[in-house]
Amino acid sequence: MRRWLALLVAATTSLVLIALLVPMALLIRSVAENGAMSRATAAAESVAVSVGTPDLPLAVERVEAPVTVFLPDGRVLGEEAERTDAVRLAETGRSVTAERGDGREVLVAVQSPQGTVVIRSYVSDEELLRGVREAWAALAGLGLALVVLGIVLADRLARAMTGPIDGLARVSHRLAGGDLEARAVPGGPPEVRAVGLALNHLAGRIGDLLAAERESVADLSHRLRTPLTGLRLDVESLRDPEEAARVGARVDALERAVSAVITDARRRSAGRESCDAAAVVRERVRFWSVLAEDQGRELRVDLPDGELPVAAGAESLAACVDALLGNVFAHTPEGASFAVRLTPHPSGAVLVISDTGPGFDPALLTRGTSGGGSTGLGLDIARRTAESSGGGLTVSSDGGARVEVTLGRP
């Protein structure tokens, strides 16, 4: 925007200056030419008053301009000059001004008792344009200075306008990233200030809606668990043990599903969380390493020594790691080795879990269809965890399965 405003002001200023300076330059040239011609005419007339008197040669010598006097008897006084057609025309009694290749000549005809005396005063092109080029250069410098000044002022004005707009963009990105405490500082033109106030109002409204959603989730939790408790009591009152076990298993499955829905809703409404990825991954790898030892699997672990904060909650990241390691144990034969590597990244951290199993077809990796006897929900959990933190998930299959989870920085 700053560049476009500068170009607009430069173009507008240039057009205005051209409209003003070009006529002024022509006027300066006309004034210089008229001045030179006036001086030449005055010199010729000052000599003309001495025609017919003995002082004519002295008058010719005193005049500063180059003057030539053509007498009727053929003699020539003053500067040597050719008797041109214009001189012969002036000898008929007409005062004229004639153009020559390198200047102009002013011819004044004066009648004397002996005949017509022609007084010629010559003005060269250099004399006609004396001071014009310097004046044009000054005008060009003035025009350039005005254009530069206009661009500088336009840039200052554009900066005053784009600064608040850039601030609004940064605040909107922070809000999109989950930072609901971000607020804009209203500034700039009234319209931009109004947008900043509206954005702050929108951010506050989003916070109020999320708070209302959290309250609704809490209320939903209480409302659903009460009938589930009643169902469990009814199951316990059944006399048939098999029927009680079957219905109880379904009640347990329903309770787990309800708990998962409520947990997921709370996670989405609770705002952006953060945790130490190194600590969470280390704890989950320690948990799964016992099963790996029982199945004779080689486990390679590469974790950073210090803390590695990421923009994901500890529970979400733990569920992500469990889902990916659970896939390794569920879909690779016993004895297949696997590796867990967590490394820092400019955007946060990268978690890579790979194995030496049969792998999978990445084209089939959509929710519910992984192509390997799996539901694909484990990878979906990992994908949602990565995307909610501002990262992403990539999978590949080259001599085994490899899942790379990029986690954003808090």
UniProtKB/TrEMBL annotation:
Topology relative to the membrane: Multi-pass membrane protein
- Annotated transmembrane regions: 135-154
Which UniProt keywords are listed? ATP-binding, Cell membrane, Hydrolase, Kinase, Magnesium, Manganese, Membrane, Nucleotide-binding, Phosphoprotein, Protein phosphatase, Stress response, Transferase, Transmembrane, Transmembrane helix, Two-component regulatory system, Virulence
Cofactor needs:
Mg(2+); Mn(2+)
Task: Tell me the segments the record calls region Disordered.
Answer: 388-410
Question: What Gene3D superfamilies does this protein's entry cite?
Answer: 1.10.287.130, Histidine kinase-like ATPase, C-terminal domain
- What Pfam families would the database entry show? HAMP, HATPase_c, HisKA
Does the keyword section mention Ion transport? no
Its main localization is: membrane
Say yes or no: keyword Cell membrane present.
yes
* Residues annotated as domain Histidine kinase: 219-410
Intracellular or extracellular location(s): Cell membrane
The highest taxon in the source lineage is: Bacteria
Reaction catalysed by this chain? ATP + protein L-histidine = ADP + protein N-phospho-L-histidine
Which InterPro entries would you find in this protein's record?
2C_sensor_his_kinase (IPR050980), HAMP_dom (IPR003660), HATPase_C_sf (IPR036890), HATPase_dom (IPR003594), His_kinase_dom (IPR005467), HisK_dim/P_dom (IPR003661), HisK_dim/P_sf (IPR036097), Sig_transdc_His_kin-like_C (IPR004358)
Q: What is its EC number?
A: 2.7.13.3
Gene Ontology molecular function terms on file: kinase activity
Q: Which residues form the HAMP domain?
A: 159-211
Query: Main EC class of this protein?
Result: transferase
Q: Which PANTHER family match?
A: SENSOR PROTEIN CREC
Q: What is this protein called?
A: Signal transduction histidine-protein kinase/phosphatase MprB
